[in-house]
Write a structure and sequence with these properties.
The chain is mainly beta. Helix content is about 5%, strand content about 30%. Strands 5-4-8-6-7 form a five-stranded mixed β-sheet, with no helix packed on it. Strands 1-2-3 form a three-stranded parallel β-sheet, covered by helices on one side. Helix 1 links the parallel strand 2 and strand 3.
Amino acid sequence: MIEHNSFSGCDNLKELVIGNPNCVISDKEKTISDNTEIKGWSNSTVRTYCEKNNKKFGQIGISYIIGFNKQGGAGGEELIYAYPGMNMPAVISPEKAGYVFKGYYNGDRQYYNASGEFVLGEELKTEEDMIGDKALEAVWSAEKYNVLFDANGAKGNMSMLKDVEYDSEFLAPDS
């Protein structure tokens, strides 16, 4: 975080390069000169600050949007930004009643595990946004249950059905 008045008296500061894409600039006193070019990533808090405060923005690199298709799940990230040369962040895993989250995939390739950790090393190697039909998709497996029927006072044995998947149809045993 860049605190209030950090650049007070720096009237001749021509360029400010901020490599941290999540750096928060808190400059309520407007001490960053209008002549200063602030450089940051294409999708970053620096760019947002410059746009909101009518400051000169210079781009130091392109960041990529990574979208998440939750496949009916709720919670977690909608999208994140990937920055070349920087570690991928962990994400919050979505939830879905009756299902276990297995991770985020693109086709057969897993990118995030069930805990929301990036599994392909530290960096994502991409040169394009991964949104729309290129978004990472949640993979779910249905929870399984054992179902025991109660004879309710009638005679006979009632057997247990094992591994009945959530939200699936099944028939009660005959006896």
